[in-house]
Structure formats: C-alpha cells, structure tokens
Automatic annotation (TrEMBL):
One cellular component (GO) term of this entry: cytosol
Example GO biological process: amino sugar biosynthetic process
Locations listed in the record: Cytoplasm
Enzyme class: transferase
Residue intervals of the SIS domain: 40-179, 212-354
Species of provenance: Acetobacter aceti NBRC 14818
Catalytic activity annotation: D-fructose 6-phosphate + L-glutamine = D-glucosamine 6-phosphate + L-glutamate
Domain of life according to the entry: Bacteria
Protein name per Swiss-Prot or TrEMBL: Glutamine--fructose-6-phosphate aminotransferase [isomerizing]
Covered residues, full protein: 245 to 608 of 608
EC number(s) recorded for this UniProt protein: 2.6.1.16
Keywords: Aminotransferase, Cytoplasm, Glutamine amidotransferase, Repeat, Transferase
C-alpha cells in the first residue's frame, strides 16, 4: 500500500534515504569502510574504456556516472541512449566494459544494446533493480540497486540507488587504476555514508518546494539548467516534470544557453537551476545572471554554501544540505523530483499513472 502517502510516487520519494542506505550496505564494508564489489570476470585495473547505455532516467544516471568515471577514475567513457546505441555499430575498443543501467531489467532497447555489446565481445556489468530479469540473466556481473519495488511509473528511488551504485563502482575502478589512495577513498566513502541522513533533510524544504511549484505550474515551458554533474540532474528534473505534469520542459547545459535557447527567455519561461557550490558554481551563476538580465525568473536549487549568492539574483532559492561535491547530484535529484511531484499535484494529473506511459517499456 501507500502507507498513508497520497501517491506511490510520494511514498517512493520519501524512501530515498532508506534506499540509498540499503544500497550502500551492500557495497561498503562497515569495518574497513571500503567499497567491496562482487568477484569480476575481468580486471578493473586494465579496462581501456567503458561504454554505458540505458534509457530515460537510467540514462541520466549513466551521464552522472560518466562525469564520475572520467574525473575520479580517469576512465574514458562513451555513453548513449540504448535506442541509438543499438544501431550505431560503434567501433569498440577490445577489453572495454559494457555498463547498462535499468530499473526493470526488461527495457527492450537496453536489452538489445546490451546484446550488441556482448556480441562484440565486451563483458557486461549491469546496474539493475530487478535482479531476476532478462538483463540479469545475460550479464556477466550484476550490481543490485536495493530500491525495492517501484510502483510509480516515474522513477524516483531507483534513480538515486543507481547513482549510489555508480558512485561505488567509480571508487572501485579509481582504486584499481591507482587514481585513488587510501585517504581519497576514505573521503569519498564518508561522503556516501553521510548521504542517508543528508537526504532525509531535503524533505524539510517541502514548503519551499511547493512555493516553487506554484510558479512552475503556471508555465507552459520551463528551462532546466546545470553544469557538470548537475547537468544530468537538470535533465532528470525536466523529464520528470514533462512526464507527470505534462508541462514542456527542456534541460540545457548552462553554458549552451547563449547558443540558442536564451532567445526563449522571458517572464513566462521559468528557469530551474541546479547549482551546487563547488568548482562550477561561479560559471553557472554567470549564465544565470545572463538569463536574469533578459527577464528570466530564476528558481534555484543550491546548498547552504551557495545560498547567499544565489538568493541575490534568484526569485526563489532552496538551500539543500551541504554535502561533499562528489555526491551533490544525489541530493539535488531529490529536490528536482519533489518539484515535479508538487507541480503535478497542483495540475491535478494522475501522478502514478501518467497518460501514454508504461512502467516497463518491453517493446522497441
Ligand atoms: C522516467 C522513467 C523512464 C525509465 C526508462 C528506463 O521517470 O521511469 O524514463 O527510466 O523507461 O526504464 P528501466 O530503468 O526499467 O530500463
């Protein structure tokens, strides 16, 4: 049942802290505070590249994973949506690792893309919520997201669990490649172990998120902006808004705005910005200043360290809990998913069963 929540989506949003914690329990040894992965039939130290593929939200989790694997593990990554990957026939570097991400383990395009990578000789590592699924059976290694059943058609907790697994995988690969020493691993693991309690604090902002939703619900079009690992979070926020509130939303890398979409900006197109403090904060802020100068209404998700400077320019600012920069996409995701949910409530749509959508897309 819904345990007293109005929708499965609301219940599942509130399961973020639990699910992140359960997933970490599977991947981090509490005694040594080290990431421990199952036995792998390939050597993580000698991978030349990774090829990631998935659909929808799972694809956005993969994009966050790419930022992590490139920056922290220094592993070259190719990524595409599975519906493209399956027909691209890309030249594959022998020994590369195929990584797929799926909640259901049954998505037709992801399964087909996986088979393509497998036939080309790549070992397959899957990040799956359904551990007894077609993808699980055909993978060399399965890393489980311990999200439990997800009933709401729009993915919520499975997505943060996917990010949690990809974060642990990044640490393991970085360590194997000699890119992360003991201190470095301890710092990143601490950041992950801190997440369940920080994630729970996001819900204390529900009034502020509802206030933001009242602006978004009036709009016909919404622009989501972010840079670095906050860019796929913007994509996730835009997809979730489209999916359940039927409001058109588009995510853009904040630096791309001046190459086109800035022409859209006026008072009627709110801008939802995902801007955690950190190395890209100033760059994103200057993109937002440009948008504001053209009449844009800024609605910003930042953290306690970024709140002062953002509230100087934004109409509404939400200061999410300050976490290690590594894990900011996980905290920011909860904020944008809650915004979509609150907006859909105001629109009165069928939150758990949006029109034209199925939970598991088993046809091409
Ligand atoms: C978005 C959503 C979809 C799925 C996509 C992949 O909220 O739920 O975009 O993420 O259909 O599904 P799985 O993860 O089952 O392969």
């Amino acid at each position: 049942g819904k345990d007293g929540y109005r929708h499965y989506m609301e219940k599942e949003l509130h399961e973020h802290p639990l699910v992140i914690g359960q997933t970490l329990q599977r991947m981090i040894d509490p005694a040594t505070r080290k990431v421990v992965l199952p036995e792998m039939p390939f050597d993580l130290a000698s991978l030349p590249r990774a090829v990631i593929t998935a659909c929808g939200s799972a694809f956005f989790a993969g994009v966050v994973g790419r930022y992590w694997l490139e920056e922290i593990a220094r592993l070259p990554v190719d990524i595409d949506v599975a519906s493209e990957m399956r027909y691209r026939n890309p030249p594959l570097t022998p020994g590369s690792l195929g990584i797929l991400i799926s909640q259901s383990g049954e998505t037709a395009d992801t399964l087909a893309a996986m088979r393509g990578l497998k036939n080309a000789g790549l070992p397959i590592l899957s990040v799956l919520n359904a551990e007894h699924s077609s993808m699980a059976r055909e993978s060399d290694v399965v890393l489980g997201t311990v999200a439990g059943p997800e009933i709401s058609v729009a993915s919520t907790k499975a997505f943060t669990a996917q990010l949690t697994v990809l974060a642990c995988l990044t640490i393991a690969i970085a360590r194997a490649r000699g890119e992360l020493d003991e201190t470095g691993e301890e710092e990143l693991v601490s950041a992950l172990l801190d997440l369940p309690s920080r994630a729970a604090e996001v819900f204390t902002h529900d009034d502020a998120i509802r206030k933001m939703a009242s602006v978004v619900a009036e709009a016909r079009d919404v622009l989501y902006l972010g840079r670095g690992s906050a860019y796929p979070v913007a994509m996730e926020g835009a997809l979730k808004l489209k999916e359940i509130s039927y409001i058109h939303a588009e995510a853009y890398a904040a630096g791309e705005m001046k190459h086109g979409p800035i022409s859209l900006i006026d008072r009627t197109v709110p801008i939802v910005a995902t801007v955690p403090s950190g190395v890209l904060f100033d760059k994103t802020l200057s993109n937002l200043q440009e948008a504001k100068a053209r009449g844009g209404r800024l609605l910003a998700f930042t953290d306690e360290a970024g709140a002062d400077r953002l509230s100087a320019i934004a109409e509404q600012t939400i200061a999410l809990p300050k976490v290690h920069p590594f894990v900011t996409p996980i905290i920011q995701t909860i904020g944008v998913q809650m915004l979509a949910y609150e907006t859909a409530l105001l629109k009165g749509t069928d939150v758990d069963q949006p029109r034209n959508l199925a939970k598991s897309v088993t046809v091409e």
